[in-house]
Amino acid sequence: MTVNKPSLSQVRVVSNRRSAWLAGCAATVVLTAAGCGGGGAAGTTTKDGFAQVPQKDGALTVWVDATRLDSAKLYQKLHPDVKLDIVTYDGNANGSNYLQTKVQLFNRTRKGWPDVVFSSQSNEVTWAVDAGFAAPLNKGLIPPATLGRFAESANDVCTVSGTVYCLRNDLSQAVLWYNAPLLKRFGYQVPTTWEEYEQLGKKVAEEHPGYLVGDAGDSFAPEIYLWASKCGANHIIGPKSVSVNTTSEACTKMARLMDVLIKNKSLSISGVFSTDFGKNKADKVLLMPGPAWFGGAVFKDTLKTPAKHIAAAPIPQWQGDTSPSTGNVGGGTWLLSQHSAHIKAATDFLKWVTTDNAYQGEKAPGFPAYAPAAETWLKEQDASGYFAGDLSALKDAASQVWPGWGSGQFSQEAIWAATVKPALTQGKTVESMLPAWQNSVVKYAKANGYKVSQ
Question: What are the UniProt keywords, alphabetically (predicted)?
Answer without folding.
Answer: Cell membrane, Lipoprotein, Membrane, Palmitate, Signal
